[in-house]
Amino acid sequence: MSVRYxxxxxxxxxxLALACVEREFPYQPAHPIRSPADVHRxxxxxxxxxxxxxxxxAVHGHWLLAHLLRRFPALxxxxxxxxxxxAHLSEKNLRQETAYLESHPHFERPYGWAWLLKLALExxxxxxxxxxxxxxxxxxxxxxxxxxxxxxxxxxxxxIRTGTHANxxxxxxxxxxxxxxxxxxxxxxxxREKALAWYGGDRxxxxxxxxxGNDFLSPCLAEADLMRRIAPDFGAWLDGFLxxxxxxxxRPASVSDRADGQLAHLDGLNLSRAWSFFSLARALPxxxxxxxxxxxxxxxxxxxxxxxxxxxxxxxxSFAAYALACAFEGATSTPASxxxxx
Length: 342
Prior knowledge:
The protein is an all-alpha fold. It contains 16 helices and no strands. The chain folds into 2 domains: 1-154, no CATH class; 199-342. The longest helix has 24 residues, at 129-152.
């Protein structure tokens, strides 16, 4: 493999994250304004996650810093990253974030919720004294999101199959990793039940219709990556759902204008496709078409992480790091006892 997940790549990603997580503007709020009293600066609303253009990008920017520090503790950016995480993931700041979500329980559902639980899981697995303090401060917010998932899942009758933030397959995926990893059995069972209800019977997905014009997730591969964790016989399920990877899904998406935030999503699509293909190929080594599609997507996405446009630079490094982790570390591998690969 020509690309590497090494300290040099980690340093580049850390620099991008540090340039964003404390940058308050530009910002796109998801905050309902019912009266003049609801008008606030981003940092006043979200003292932990006010940067990176929007709340969810700020959350996964913090995940990225924790992820990089955990794997590459000697990074030149380590001191700055620890300082930012310590300041933002304080008990005071996170109490305010928790209070905000309590009063706005639909906020960032499910994409931001999923990334927040991924951050919590990352901190939980890091044997570092500072990280454990940050984890403890984050725990009330993570616990609230667990409760919100358990309230929402029975009410969400149908799956959402978009390639953007509302996608329910992605929204369940990181939540399932969190629940399984931290033994949150009620949440794990609810996620499993809903995933099987929504997707267990899916067959012959029309993958040739992808990509959509502003996708940063593949609805097809996001679903497959979730079911890799859930399906009792995943190999049989995938053979019925995606018997072969069509050219439209095997070929990286092209981006015509990286200054346009919606079009720049497609660079993220290449990276999220890459992490799905690598993980699916590891689960099903007999499916050579999955492995063959992974590398071109990874290379296409990595080439544009630092494009010079904030439209992509405020978030793509997180996708790149996760794609590289899936490529080299099997970051989302499912234990063999949970699946039957063909």
